[in-house]
Each structure stands twice: as C-alpha cells, then as structure tokens.
Design a protein that fits this description.
The chain is α/β, with parallel strands linked by helices. It has six helices and eleven strands.
C-alpha cells in the first residue's frame, strides 16, 4: 500500500459524458461529497465529449472570446476549469481519471502527488509498450513539470496532463490521457493558442496510438487500474 493513497478506492466508470461544463462541475460536486464523508474515496473514469478546457488565466486574455469561437468551429465545446494551467483539448479518444480522496491536511502532499501520479501513469503506459517518462517538453501545450510524454522517431509528444484541486479536508487529482486520434486535438489547439496569442509547438501534441498503433482507450484504462492496484485496493 502507498502512503499517497487511501487503503481502498471505489472505481466508478462513467459510461456516458454529461457535457463539457457538467463533467467538470460533477468532479467538484464529488469532491464536496468526499470531503464530508458522504462519498467514499474514489476513482472516476470517463471519456469526455470533445472539449477545450481553458485555464483561469486564459479567460483574462484579449483573445479568449475568439478562442472559444475557434473551439466550436473545430467541433469542440469550450469550458473553463477551476484548476490552473493553460488550454488543453480532449475528446472520446482520451481517458479522464479523477482521483478524489479525503485527507485532513490535503495541502501537505500537493506537490508530491504530481510526481507520484506522473510516475504511475508513465508506468501504466510503459506496460503497453510506450516509451513514456515524466517531465515538461519544450513548447508543449498546457506546460507542466510533471507532464507524461512519450518518445518516438519524431521526438517527444505529450500524452498525459494533470491538474489538482485542494480543499480543506480533501483533494481532487485529475488526469487526461490522450490515447487515440491526435489530429483533431492538434488542430483545435493550434487555432485556440493562436487566438489567445500563446506560443507552443504543435509537434508536441500527440496520442499513445501515435507511438504504439494498436493501443485503445480500453487498454489504457485496464493498465491504469492495474497500476493503481499495485498501491491500493480497488472495489
């Protein structure tokens, strides 16, 4: 068992997306319930509808309204998340993993969680044959010190972005794993980042399938649960 995790996590597979904003808000509702003890510590796994999740800082940029319009033109719903970071895009070829856990001093281990879960997701992808590691890629979208990237003939591509929300008595660690069909994500991010006036390198946007062609979202879900099972009990 890992000191980073509760001894038991309930696994909730959400079979249908609720909508871009609703899925983000539902995670916050669950966090409130976990905090009060009305909901047990849990993992929520789902495939989202095509969404561009903007960070709070993005909304203060002059080009934000244009970026929302560009998202819609590409078939992605614009939404604003409570966590930090810059715009990230995902669709049903991605897997969202929300880990919600009650903890008296939730802020104490906040940074350590990024490293721990980055390693966990890298190991899950490695088990599927992906050359995955943890670290920021120069020019990546929504840059972060603990992004999970994969290496291939064309260089490094971002595969997992993570974000965290901490409240008094509980935390939510949310991860988006890009598995299939990277082209629409690369396209919508190119347009939205241009509208926001932010520089990035589109070559850093990819999917696990770009590196190991037979990988599916179901494969990644199984690998993530297996990685979790090495640290805690799942129900």
């Amino acid at each position: 068992m890992s000191a980073m995790m509760a001894p038991l996590l309930e696994v909730h597979r959400q079979l249908h997306n609720l909508g871009a904003e609703a899925d983000l808000n539902y995670a916050l509702e669950l966090l409130a319930r976990v905090k009060t003890g009305d909901q047990a510590d849990m993992l929520r796994l789902y495939r989202p509808e095509p969404t561009v999740a903007f960070g709070q800082r993005d909304t203060r940029l002059e080009g934000f309204s244009h970026a929302e319009q560009v998202s819609r033109e590409h078939g992605f719903v614009p939404a604003v998340r409570k966590a930090g970071g810059r715009a990230a895009a995902y669709h049903q070829g991605t897997l969202v993993v929300d880990h919600l856990q009650r903890e008296d001093d939730a802020i104490a281990g906040a940074k350590a969680r990024f490293g721990f879960f980055g390693d966990l997701f890298a190991q899950a992808l490695q088990s599927l044959g992906v050359d995955a590691a943890v670290g920021e890629i120069p020019g990546e979208y929504c840059p972060g010190e603990f992004s999970v990237y994969g290496s291939g003939p064309a260089g490094r591509i971002k595969l997992v972005g993570t974000a965290q929300r901490v409240v008094s008595g509980a935390w939510l660690f949310s991860s988006v794993i890009v598995v299939e069909n990277s082209a629409p994500i690369r396209s919508v991010l190119t347009g939205t980042y241009a509208a926001l006036g932010l520089e990035w390198d589109p070559a850093t946007a990819g999917a696990a399938q770009d590196l190991v062609s037979e990988i599916t979202v179901d494969d990644v879900e199984d690998a993530v649960l297996a990685a979790y099972a090495a640290h805690t009990a799942l129900s």
